[in-house]
Amino acid sequence: MSLTTIKCRATLFLEVQRGRGNPPKKEHKKVMSLFLSSYENRLDTKGRISVPASFRASVAGEDFAGVVLYRSFTNNCIEGFSMSRMEKMAAATDKMGIFDSELDDLTALLFADARPLAFDVTGRIVIPSDLLAHAGIADTAVFVGRGNSFQIWNPESFRAAQEKSMQNLRAARPNLRIAE
Length: 180
Prior knowledge:
Layout lengths: L2 H15 L20 E5 L5 E3 L2 H6 L7 E6 L6 E4 L1 H11 L7 H10 L4 E4 L5 E3 L2 H7 L4 E6 L4 E4 L1 H18 L8
Antiparallel strand pairs: 1-7, 2-6, 3-4, 3-5, 4-8, 7-8
């Protein structure tokens, strides 16, 4: 090893020690895309259903290659999230009082009822029968994007709920403010 090489390595070592050398690599932040649009898919004879490709892409950067589903407590449908979104919901429940009865109800529904479902090699999941029964889904389901989450509906029930939402919005004419 030449004297010049030794000097260069020593200088680099000292620069790093003093905090002026190459900074440590930044941790890659997970960026979740939004769940957008609606897709109608059929369940096969084994109860598998294909998760829309854009929904799978929304969770592609996640550690868990799948989705988390649970019974909706506001509609007769199934709620769906990424695992990181469920982790944020768990963190939010930590801010509630530990003896709060609403916490008991919420955690019983959100976490005790939640099912992490991994995608198979073709992007399908098997939705448990109790979730399908809750949503009234037999052979066809609609995946409905809701931004940071999605829902899975019986197609007829979704059309009725969507029409009701349209009527409500036309009557209320809400004003959505977007902060910059």
